[in-house]
């Protein structure tokens, strides 16, 4: 390090020290001895541009105004002097000796403190304690404490609600009111509370000018103006805090007269004054759970509901407008879409919501309309069921339900081309789409009377039985036949008639040919053959005597036997000689009758 | 004597044939027949409404026929009344389950209905079995069963009385085969009758109806059904009908919303 550097460092240090030496921060009071109730001024002055000034605590004194800051800049022979002073108007309240603590200020990054100040307070006129503003429930902000009590009494903000104890969702009106007894030159809103925990809607004031009213508050007359009005809807239950609104005013005040001229004309000074409204707590009760209707969607207030439908009869695929209008006062904007049971087959679109809600000091009121566009796709009779709109009435503390009428809708057949919905047409369906129905059947129809179907009818069962019956008959017949034919003699005797008949038939033929010889032979053979078979007499033993004996044994009457024997004799004779006395026809008839008779009796 | 017997048996056989043939040949009065022809002419001239009333007249006079149902369904189809068309197609199908035209038109008419219900997949044997019992109409089966049973009997009778051993053998086996056929046909007939007895079906006629979970208008709607849909009818109760969709969904609708097939 060279010497030059040392010199520079020293010079820098010295300069700093030099400046520090020059900065003076001092406190002074206009009086060192004051009486109670007397006003006096305390000034903190610094001969530099300082910042972060913090005043001492003025215990035992009331701050009436301040800090009033004044700066002056003087340039004498090229050297500039800057001085800043902070002054407070104080009023002694209690007797005694008080010492102000040090005020501090920061100049060029260095903090300076003032010398302590001693003030003796002697008994003076009493200070009216009662008129002072009551201490708010919450701790006062520091800076407010530092305000002159006189101003805080004559200019303040209040947050006022029309109700302090509400149900969740019940609307309340919040007003920030300005109370003043002093003249305000200028005002400016610094901070508007967030209103956390509420859904809020400002009341728009159409009047540009502030309306001043006279109001008596705590026994004093004030000019009152409403700074801001908001409708609040508590979003949840509990103790909800409304944060303060902060404003800055410039107030024109009478300044203490210092000179005769001042006293004569009166001096005023404009004082900047920051005001905060005291915070407010609103108690919010939860909505009762008892008796809460099913379709409750959070509406709190007094409501009416009505529904309208633009048409009751329409064609399929035409549009239909259903409007549900909820009117009344309450949290209309917070009402959730009511549940409406439209026919399941209607195409439904999201509702168009139209609000006609006015916000005024008495709260939010008006109406909210839900307009639904519906498109029935199919014909038929439909019903829109009545809607039950439930809300909580804070006035009665109960849930109430407004019933809305239902509607009957007749949907006629629409345009068929639009009506056809090919949904999920598979391959098969697509293939079929190009086909038309098969043509009608033109062949003669198999008509039958209802209930007279062939299947199940009596005829059916009878016919069904024919097959088995034929078979059963055949079976029976075969059995009977077998039994009949098991004895050859009996069969022979049974067939005798037939053989005889054949011979007789042959004989008749011969007779017609006048072949009498052969005729008699045939009759003879026929009779003999018949008797042989019938009486079961072997041909060797066959003669008239054996025949007669056999017939007699079978108890045939003698006349018949005699006739038979005669005929047999006649036939035997006729073979050799012509027959007289009896015609061939007679013989034939006789033979036939005999066979019939024997057949009958045996 | 002999002549008399043979004559009698011939006459008996003639009666028998007549008894079999008679029910097959149309016994309808000429009235119904001519109305049917008139309806067909009206249909051919595209006068579908008139055709509908002609066919309805036949049905109103108490006559039933698959052809009449089918033609009526076609006439309704042409007038655009799809639910009615389907109702009569299904009625025709019931009388003549094997008819391809009827099956085809049911399929085509179904394309114009709204609801497409995918049937629950069925075990292929059940599907085959249903196809088999619905192959022929009940009346055809009835005539077939009579004829088969008759020929079975004749075969066995031949077997009983023939002298030739070859004929005896042939007629015996023919009889056995015919007998098996007859029994099968009788069984199919019985199954088909049973099938239609337990399978009650209906066609939905209301354009759009909500199917409820209970037979009570205030009960919950289960699903929506549209006209022309064929549903199974499980049971009926006090003006309500329990329906079942091919996809297995069930619910209640008013009886007036559907017509039974």
TrEMBL record, chain A:
PANTHER family: BATD, PROTEIN BATD-RELATED
Pfam families tied to this protein: BatD
Domain of life: Bacteria
Protein known as: Protein BatD
Leader peptide range in chain numbering: 1-20
Span list, region Disordered: 123-147
Spans through the membrane: 458-477
Automatic annotation (TrEMBL), chain B:
Keyword Transmembrane helix attached: yes
A UniProt-annotated Pfam family: TPR_16
Keywords: Membrane, TPR repeat, Transmembrane, Transmembrane helix
Residues in SH3b domain copies: 199-259
Stretches that traverse the bilayer: 128-161, 170-188
Ranges occupied by TPR repeats: 66-99
Protein name: Tetratricopeptide repeat protein
């Amino acid at each position: 390090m060279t010497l030059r550097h040392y010199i520079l460092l020293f010079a820098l240090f010295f300069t700093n020290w030099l400046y520090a030496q020059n900065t003076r921060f001092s406190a002074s009071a206009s009086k060192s001895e004051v009486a109670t109730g007397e006003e006096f001024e305390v000034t903190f002055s610094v001969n530099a541009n300082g910042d972060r000034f913090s005043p001492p605590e003025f215990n035992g004194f009331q701050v009436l105004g301040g800090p009033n800051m004044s700066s002056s800049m003087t340039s004498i022979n090229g050297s500039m002097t800057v001085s800043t002073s902070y002054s407070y108007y104080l009023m002694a309240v209690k007797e005694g000796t008080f010492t102000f603590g040090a005020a501090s200020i920061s100049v060029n990054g260095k903090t300076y403190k003032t010398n302590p100040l001693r003030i003796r307070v002697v008994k003076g006129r009493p200070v009216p304690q009662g008129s002072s503003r009551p201490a708010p429930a919450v701790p006062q902000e520091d800076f407010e404490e530092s305000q002159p009590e006189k101003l805080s009494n004559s200019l303040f903000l209040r947050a006022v609600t029309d109700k302090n104890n509400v149900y969740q969702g019940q609307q309340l009106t919040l007003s920030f009111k300005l109370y003043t007894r002093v003249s305000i030159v200028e005002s400016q809103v610094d901070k508007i509370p967030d209103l956390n925990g509420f859904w809020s809607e400002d009341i728009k004031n159409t009047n540009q000018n502030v309306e001043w009213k006279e109001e008596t508050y705590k026994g004093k007359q004030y000019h009152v103006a409403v700074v801001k009005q908001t409708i609040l809807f508590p979003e949840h239950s509990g103790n909800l805090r409304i944060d303060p609104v902060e404003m800055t005013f410039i107030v024109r005040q009478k300044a203490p007269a210092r000179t005769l001229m001042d006293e004569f004309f009166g001096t005023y000074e404009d004082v900047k004054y920051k005001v905060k409204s005291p915070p407010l707590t609103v108690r919010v009760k939860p909505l009762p759970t008892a008796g809460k209707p099913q379709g409750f969607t959070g509406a709190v207030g007094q409501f009416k509901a009505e529904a309208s439908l633009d048409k009751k009869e329409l064609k399929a695929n035409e549009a239909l407008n259903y409007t549900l209008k909820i009117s009344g006062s309450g949290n209309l904007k917070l009402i959730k879409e009511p549940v409406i049971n439209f026919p399941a087959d209607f195409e439904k679109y999201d509702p168009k919501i139209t609000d006609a809600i006015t916000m005024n000091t008495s709260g939010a009121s008006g109406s909210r309309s839900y307009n639904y566009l519906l498109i029935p796709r199919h014909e038929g009779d439909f019903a829109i069921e009545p809607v039950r709109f439930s809300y909580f009435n804070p006035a009665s503390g109960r849930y109430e339900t407004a019933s809305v009428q239902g509607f009957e809708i007749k949907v006629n057949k629409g345009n068929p081309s639009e009506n056809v919905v090919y949904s999920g047409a598979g391959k098969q369906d697509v293939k079929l789409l190009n086909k038309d129905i098969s043509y009608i059947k033109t062949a003669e129809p198999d008509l039958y009377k209802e209930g007279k179907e062939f299947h199940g009818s009596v005829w059916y069962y009878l016919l069904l039985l024919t097959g088995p019956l034929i078979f059963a008959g055949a079976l029976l017949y075969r059995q009977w036949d077998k039994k009949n034919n098991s004895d050859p003699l009996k069969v022979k005797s049974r067939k005798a008639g037939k053989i005889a008949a054949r011979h007789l038939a042959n004989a008749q033929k011969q007779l017609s040919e006048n072949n009498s010889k052969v005729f008699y032979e045939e009759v003879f053979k026929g009779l003999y053959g018949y008797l042989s078979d019938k009486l079961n007499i072997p041909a060797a033993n066959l003669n008239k005597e054996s025949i007669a004996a056999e017939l007699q044994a079978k108890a045939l009457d003698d006349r018949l036997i005699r006739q038979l024997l005669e005929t047999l004799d006649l036939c035997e004779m006729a073979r050799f000689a012509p027959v007289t006395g009896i015609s061939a026809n007679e013989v034939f008839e006789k033979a036939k009758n005999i066979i019939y008779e024997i057949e009958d009796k045996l | 004597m002999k002549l008399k017997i043979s004559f009698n048996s011939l006459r008996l056989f003639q009666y028998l044939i007549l008894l079999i043939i008679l029910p097959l040949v149309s016994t309808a009065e000429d009235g119904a027949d001519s109305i049917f022809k008139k309806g067909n002419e009206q249909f051919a001239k595209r006068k579908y409404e008139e055709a509908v009333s002609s066919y309805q007249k036949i049905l109103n006079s108490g006559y039933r026929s698959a052809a009449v149902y089918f033609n009526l369904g076609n006439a309704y189809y042409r007038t655009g009344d799809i639910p009615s068309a389907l109702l009569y197609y299904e009625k025709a199908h019931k009388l003549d389950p094997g008819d391809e035209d009827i099956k085809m038109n049911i399929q085509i008419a179904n394309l114009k209905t709204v609801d497409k219900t995918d049937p629950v997949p069925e075990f292929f044997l059940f599907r085959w079995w249903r196809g088999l019992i619905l192959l022929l109409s009940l009346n055809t089966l009835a005539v077939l069963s009579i004829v088969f049973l008759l020929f079975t009997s004749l075969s066995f009778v031949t077997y009983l009385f023939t002298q030739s051993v070859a004929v005896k053998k042939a007629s015996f086996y023919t009889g056995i085969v015919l007998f098996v056929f007859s029994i099968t046909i009788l069984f199919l007939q019985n199954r088909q009758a049973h099938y239609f007895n337990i399978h009650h079906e209906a066609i939905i006629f209301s354009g759009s109806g909500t199917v409820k979970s209970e037979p009570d208008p205030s009960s919950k709607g289960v699903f929506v059904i549209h006209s022309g849909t064929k549903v199974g009818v499980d049971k009926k109760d006090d003006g309500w009908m329990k329906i079942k969709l091919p996809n297995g969904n069930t619910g209640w609708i008013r009886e007036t919303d559907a017509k039974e097939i």
